[in-house]
Amino acid sequence: MIVLELKAALDFNLDLTRVTPAVLAGLKLTEIKRLGLRYGRDTLRLADLFAVSGTPDLELRIEAASTRLHNIGVGLAQGIIRVTGRCGDGVGTQMTGGEIHVRGDAGHLVGAGMVGGVIDITGHAGDFVGSAIPGAVAGMKGGAVIIGKSAGARVGDRMRRGLIVIGGNAGAYCASQLIAGTVAVLGTVGRDSATGMHRGSLLVRETDALRLPETFVDTGRYQLAFVPVLLAHIARFKPAFKTRLRAFTSSQRWVGDRGCGGTGEVLLARAA
Amino acid sequence: MKINGVAIEDTFAEAFSMKATRLIITALNPTWAMHSARAVTGFATSVIACGCEAGIERELQPNETPDGRPGVAVLLFSTSTKELTKQLQNRVGQCVLTSPTSACFAGFDSGDPLPLGKTLRYFGDGYQIAKKLGRDRYWRVPVMDGEFLCQDVTYLVKAIGGGNFLILAETQAQALAASERAVAAMRKIPSVIMPFPGGVVRSGSKVGSKYKTLPASTNHRYCPTLKQVVDSALPAAVGAVLEIVIDGLTAEAINEATRAGIRAACTLGRKRGIVGITAGNYGGNLGPYHFKLREILK
Questions:
Q1: What pLDDT does B198 receive?
Q2: By CA distance, what is A201's nearest residue in B?
Q3: Taking burial as the number of CB atoms within 10 A of a residue's CB, which of A245, B121, B138, B189 is the most buried?
């Protein structure tokens, strides 16, 4: 495992797209230390910014991360990245496999456009979790993103496949334009959530403040056989969610967005 | 070799390679899971005319099933992948999909995939919903009591069919009593089924017939009413023979089931009319698996 520990607070943003376990695993420690990174107007060596230690393999640990560290695990195909601290935007964007574990918060675009793998963030995440990367037609197409606390706006925007679980609340436009896939929010969602849903599922806690678009229809309360299978799947990633997930066993099922001919579903769990 | 006075013949059961899959059928309660399981494994005693051999492996507690409801594990065996695929589609489509509150899951995690919900989903007429969780895909098909949940594929594994032993008794009632004890003991063994009614078959067959159209016919050497007519394999004291056929996922499972079944059958003993235990084979040249009774019972 290679360990990178920031030596000092960063003055500029740092793009870590090139620093993946697969790249590092093919290099010697001295070569890793000499890896060039753009930093402001300069190119610095990795060892100028980080204390680098360990043995190269398919595991990378980043200690004392900073919100200026962006694009951690972009395009990750294999291996594990563990991050401690808050990190910047683009964690796991377009990743196809492997795992990213962040003990802390993450910025915008977590898992945007990802195809496979698992992202587990213990803290909060910014906007566009699992959404489309700028310019893309569809959002994430596979894999799982687990956010321990709350997330910003447009969680799962235009998502096509995969699973997003938000342990806390999600912001406005959650699951908007959802093409397919599953978004589970154990807390509440912000305004205009589920707008423009085509297919897919949004699980969310039912509160007095929740307002689904008028173009959703109530199909009744059900105990669907699928829900326990989904909940067991989520609990495998995050056993701590198990108790709160049980509320979804009996759900009010709304279907929409009929305004665009959509047959997506919103499963509302009764508030505890 | 004798157990409780019952002679164990020095012979072997000859068994064949088969293809098998396990399904897990769940429902709102154990009664309806069992209704569905009985239907899907119905008319599946022999590949000779049923297309497959199937049976209930065991009941499952809610904590053993994917959806946390009571369930039943069933095993289906056939001679070819193509036939097993066809049987799955027809049987699950007509017997599980139709059964109130049911859901159907693959009972293995690996093997060659066989379509399950992949074909049954079309019953949803476009209203079906696909859900992919990890590597598994599920289909949610809207039906009149809610949704039928079905895993996209189940998995085929190599298996063994045709393990067997025969119980030779003085009377029909004694043979049946011993068979019932044997089957009750064998049903506790995982990975095996006894596909015939009640786990017991009275019409043991031989390959071929004097009638050209028949692939199999009565095993006349074991028919007590023909004892003085043909080259009978039965001692004079025998008035009834019943056979227990065993299909299993592994040779070890069939060994274990055979051992448990014979020992249970022999508890009645010679004094209560059980004369001997033997097994059916074709001389050892047809089937690659030989289950030697005396070795199994050592």
A1: 96
A2: B131
A3: B138
Highest CATH level, class, for A71-269? mainly beta
Q: What's the full length of chain A, in residues?
A: 272
Q: How far is CA A90 from the centre of its chain?
A: 10
- Interval A175-204 mean pLDDT: 97
- Candidates B127, B130, B147; nearest CB to A225: B147
Dihedral angle of Cα A49, A50, A51, A53, to the nearest 10 degrees:
-140
A261 part of contact set with chain B, CB < 8 Å: no
> CB distance from A230 to chain B under 8 Å?
yes
CA B145 to chain A, closest CA, distance in angstroms equals: 10
pLDDT at residue number B174: 98
Average pLDDT over residues A180-194: 96
Q: What is the CATH number of the domain that holds B164?
A: 3.30.70.520
Nearest CA in chain A to B131: A181
Average pLDDT over residues A221-230: 95
Look up the domain containing B234 and give its range. 2-14+159-296
Residue A65: per-residue pLDDT: 80
- Residue A209, pLDDT above cutoff 90: no
Cα distance between residue B74 and residue B39, in whole Å: 11
Q: What is the pLDDT of residues A15-67, one digit of tens each?
A: 999 999 999 999 999 999 999 999 999 999 999 999 999 999 999 999 988 99
> What residue segments make up the domains of chain A, in order of their start?
1-61, 71-269
Average the pLDDT over B57-76 and give the result.
97
Place of tokens 């589609």: B89
Whether residue A226 and residue B134 make contact (CB cut-off 8 A), yes or no, is no
B125, B133, B147, best to mutate vs chain A, most A CBs in 10 Å: B133
Say yes or no: B93 and B193 in one domain.
no
Burial string for A21-58 (b: 16+ CB within 10 Å, else e) reads beebbeeeeeebbebebebeeeeeebbebbebeeebeb
Q: Chain B partners of A223 at a C-beta cutoff of 8 Å? A: 146
Distance of residue A118 Cα from the nearest chain B Cα, in angstroms: 10
Residues of A in contact with B130 (CB under 8 A): 180
Q: Is A233 helix (H, G, I), strand (E, B) or coil?
A: helix
